[in-house]
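Write out the 3D structure for:
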Amino acid sequence: MVDPARAQRLAKRISSIVASAIASEIKDPRLAYVTVTDARVTNDLHDATIYYTVMGESLDDEPDFEAAAAGLAKATGVLRSKVGAGTGVRFTPTLRFVLDTVPDAARQMEELVARARANDEMVARRAAEAKPAGDTDPYRTADDADATPDESAGTQE
């Protein structure tokens, strides 16, 4: 069993090696907008999962996830060779690329929070404008002491 801290250090190193290789050494145009976000290594150091995101050419363009996945699948062997040379471990881990869904989940959470804030503001506005359905003060006061015991006690028999 390997130390989990060692696995984390190796994952961080693999992440930086793969990111720099994609940015500078691999000339596949499908990988131009790929960003490595995280890497995880199993405790036995035999398998590495690399998480990535894909950006569009501009803010209005939709990213091409399929082309990026195909480019990463084609470059896996070269990237594994770079990882083996850069880490110096006895067994070079196999690389598996997974599209990172955290940015999409974060965007959805932000939209939900914005919708909840808008609903809270609407409820606060309605509460400020609301008027009570019955008396303005439904509780007994000192003026109620004049009432007869039958009126104040209710119908308890």
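The first strand starts at residue 34 and ends at 41.
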